[in-house]
Amino acid sequence: TPVDDAAAAPGDEDDPVHVLVGPHLEWSTLLGRRTAEMHLALASDKEDPAFSPAPLTAIDRQAMFHGARGLAKRSFRSARSIAVSHPELRAVLDREDDVVERLQRIVSTRISTSVIRCHGDYHLGQVLWTGKDFVIVDFEGEPARSLGQRRLKRPALVDVAGMIRSFHYASQGAARQVLRSLASSRDPSELDAWLTLWFR
């Protein structure tokens, strides 16, 4: 498709891909840098056990698997309770065993990394844009979790995954807003292609 061709080689400022993605690449690169600096700061105090990095252990991996499996099973159960069955939803529901099997790999695969204090509720709503830079706010962690759970050390990628998911939510929110404002004048699949390009 034209979108795929454009995505393969973003061009000059007249290129529609550049117009759509150009400044966002700069902003997301800066956000990535600030995220890394946040994690370095949260892992910088070797004297304070609450802020010193620790190796990810087999017990940590087991706990992560059990937590992820429990969440996946609750999500599948909730999705099955939806009265309206959609073919795409059915396809996902039919793969529950595959999802759990993939999650099991975190236990069977040796992972050499550290766990640190993380932000714990990291998404686009937790960063303020000053016009030139990002300021990260709200370090209380996910409000639905207990204080003990919020203090647990985790791989920094937990925060990164939360931010990536937030970008996906942002693209979906933009899609709904554009479709409302344009009514039926655009093909939704065309919009999906552009938003997927922006998200990726």
Model description:
By secondary structure, the chain is mainly alpha-helical. Helix content is 60%, strand content 5%. α3 (58-80) runs antiparallel to α5 (96-108) and α7 runs antiparallel to α8 (188-199). The longest helix has 27 residues, at 16-42.
Give me some keywords for this one.
200 residues; mainly alpha; two-stranded antiparallel sheet; two-stranded antiparallel ribbon; 8 helices; 60% helix; globular; disordered N terminus
Summarize model confidence as the mean pLDDT: 85
Helix content range: 55-70%
Main beta-sheet annotation: 2 strands, antiparallel
Order of helices and strands: HHEHHHEEEHHH
Give the SSE map:
Blueprint: H1 2-8, H2 16-42, E1 54-55, H3 58-80, H4 87-93, H5 96-108, E2 114-115, E3 127-129, E4 134-136, H6 147-151, H7 157-182, H8 188-199
Antiparallel strand pairs: 1-2, 3-4
Short description:
The protein is built from eight helices and four strands, in the order H-H-E-H-H-H-E-E-E-H-H-H.
